Amino acid sequence: MKIKFPKNYQRYIDVAMEEAEIALKKGEIPVGSVVVREDRVISRAHNQVEERGDITAHGEILVIRDASKKLGKYLNNALILTTLEPCPMCLSAIIFSRIEKVVYLARDPIWGALGGIFDMRVTLHHVKGPLSEYIEYPPAEELLREFFNSIR
């Protein structure tokens, strides 16, 4: 079966950016994520590491947890759109949840696992990893810059 992904991500970018802005207002690293299946938002979330006191409470992890409650543990035929390139922990969760595609809006040269520091899918060559697509989106990069400038 050929999976159909939306051709225009703008609607999902808007949702992810809303979540990133919520995170920024809470003093979190501004990352927002959305899980989409059949051209419909299943779940949305943002980083809540500080709020929850949980180092694993990245937007990607939280959105996967919520989507899994609604759809079951495997998220076949779904995509995740996130404002920052996933770290190794988040990409592992994406792989284990069987999400088919990752779309991200800003590269992460420090923790990025889709080419930022390395491509984890190459390292895990025995595992079928998700497709990925980087969409350069300056507003996502600007939110991150704003956050990190404020804490330095």
Automatic annotation (TrEMBL):
UniProt entry tagged with the keyword Metal-binding: yes
Keywords: Metal-binding, Zinc
GO biological process: tRNA wobble adenosine to inosine editing
GO molecular function annotation: tRNA-specific adenosine-34 deaminase activity; zinc ion binding
One Pfam family linked to the record: dCMP_cyt_deam_1
Keyword Repressor carried by entry: no
Domain CMP/dCMP-type deaminase: residue ranges: 7-151
Designated name of the protein: CMP/dCMP-type deaminase domain-containing protein
Native source organism of the sequence: Candidatus Coatesbacteria bacterium 4484_99
